[in-house]
Amino acid sequence: MPAPLKRRSSVLWLIVVASASLAPCIELRAQDNSNWPLAWAQWHNRTRDWGGIRTNLSDKGLDLGVLYTQDVAANPVGGLNQSLTYGARLEGMAKLDFDKIFGIKGSSLHYIMYQGLGQGLSQEVIGNDFGVTQIFSSDILAIANLSLQQKLYHDQIYISAGRLAVGDIFARDDTFAYYLNGALNSTPGQLLINQPTFTTYPFNIWGLAGTYTFPDNQYIGLGVYDASVDDLNNAENGFNFRFEPKGDVLMVGQVGVNPGKDDTSKYLPGHYQIGAFYNTSRVDVLGTTTETREGNWGAYAIARQMIYQEKDLQGLSLWGLVTIAPQQAINTQPFGVSGGLFYQGLLPNRDNDVTAGAFILGFYSDHLQGQSYELVFEATHRYQFADWSYLTLDFQYVVNPAGNDDIPDAWVFGTEFSVKF
């Protein structure tokens, strides 16, 4: 990522926060095709309705929100150095409901800004590629989303255009948010290492994307995005509206199905998706500064399935993913595989807590001498204090940081705390 801009003045940030005073729980993120118990739409606010102010604003078509999330992590063993780091993100969100304002059914404008704080343990200390803290997103004030969204045909059609994260729709499963590692930050990290413009929230780029959901919970998604790395939202310290398309585009397609999404379904909840992408840009050949190749493609598959259900969303689920980007001359990690499990309600009288484990594995290109694979094992437990706040305790073991045998394996202990005020 570009060099971060130093923190803006407190006055500027107070203006941003003041303009995003919280409102009722609404869906402020892109449409989610998974079966996820803690989506934005299901979060309540810590400070509730403020004497009816939020409800009044919402009735007029303006919904607002603020979220604070922080990661604290330390590696007492391994890595390039040993240290403790703090990283956080404060987000202010606004939604204009054009149905209530102008009578345009299913239409809305979404705007999200964030202030990144602190630093990342992987980037600054360990030296590995799968960032061990997911919330760190550079110490800048930046735009996370600016998009027009439209739902049509009984909400079966969803279209979004503007500054988008590719991972809002494609190659995502919100289950990954249970983990701290950034390689499971809704979108597989192996994709992002190979394709910087395959952005994941809060990083975004100009694009047009949409989905069509069939009555039986199958869906198809298509998206076209600006493929210029220079046009990423943080290329100019967080306020980049450059739109200078040079004919380079990233095209993504995906099909999926959500068995068990309906309460009346005979199947347990699951989510299955297969997707592929093609980038028309010229890409530097690894290890050279003069040779390039035109065009780059890849594919992915993600599966999640509950295999044991106590009641509702309580029970045990398994998940797995595979990524491929076969052109070894231009892709840092041509092959990746990850998998894990999570159990909601494992502890007695803690029905909303989640206990989870995972591994993340990425194989480096044969063109990168001295780099073989990076492997991360992670175990985590999320204490869901309320529907507006949680605390996660996390342990990770990083094997072969950056695929380099010369960097000692690292032990990482971390926490994540989040609250929606």
From TrEMBL:
InterPro entries for the chain: Carb-sel_porin_OprB, OprB_Porin, OprB_sf
Organism of derivation: Pseudovibrio ascidiaceicola
Keyword Glycoprotein applies: no
Family: Belongs to the OprB family.
Name under which the protein is recorded: Porin
Segments traversing the membrane: none
Key words of the record: Signal
Signal peptide region: 1-23
